[in-house]
Fold this protein.
Amino acid sequence: MKSFLVKCVLALCITFCCLFYLDMMYEQKTESPLGEINVFQFIPNDIQIANVGSSHGQCDFNWNPLTKDRGISTFNFALTSQSYEYDYALINMHQDDFVEGSLLFIPVSYFSFNREATDPNDIEAISVRYYRLLSPQYNPDYSLYKDLVAIRFPVLSAGEKIFDLLKPPVTFPSLSENRPNIIYAAELSPEGTGGEAIPEDAGGEAATEQAPAQTPEELYGVETVQGFQAKGQARYERHFLNKEEYFETDKIQNLKNMIELCQKKGITPILITTPFTVYYNQYVSDEFLQGFYATIQSLTSAYGISYYDYSHDERFQTALQYFGDADHLNEEGANYFTNLLMEEIPELKAYLETH
């Protein structure tokens, strides 16, 4: 009997060693779709200014100059298609990393009170990435089976990708050696980098000043404008079609939970809607906007917090040099927008004047 138990333990150890080896080889030879979450390995423990959000938060805020030039501790918690449920989970897990009196920008997009992603494959991909970001007690969708099969030992769920073991290893940059590049790259959503090239003479403040005298077609070219029109319609269809309810109670409650957590921890929550182009806004009905703003108004009144709306800001709506697509800012736009926030948002301006 003793000999049998020893053999069983030995066989189990050999099995786990083989599994660990195969999994290590598989991860070295498979291109991971989770590259954007590498930045979460560098969350500071003294956060002063941060934001959450979906790709609108991910693309539209660039706090790097504040960190580099003024030593302000910042972090961008936003990820593509991230809901308030996961915004709250991330802030809840990292609540002790915020200093007293810190600021948290919470984007409110047209789809924030329902689910942006509706495709089951998209929903599953979104769920899986949080197994690498959240401890089990903070993960609202935690499953031990999924944790083991999809995260701890992804080779077990490889399917046809098991043949990737026959490929040469994929070379990834060193996180420690390339931290600035990884942080910068993680701020840009794949959806926000596909805009057509803008003529050099169309960018900058001078072009913005000339915009009232010229149509977007004259400034950027007919082909570019048509591209933004097509993207605007596509984004609208993704965010609005095939949805029975635009203002779901549980989504609103998730935002309330985050606001209450912030106020409990001495963090100032600031609601904000980021800039969109006219080619996205033109499809959004007045009826929807009435419900959208009424929902936000109920929250700002109940909690005594501020809301700032840049969705129809004339400095952005037709300034295509600032956009990657119809509703995401590009690098230049993110820099311009973040600089505007530092000048125009009273809470942020006051904080920077005293720090």
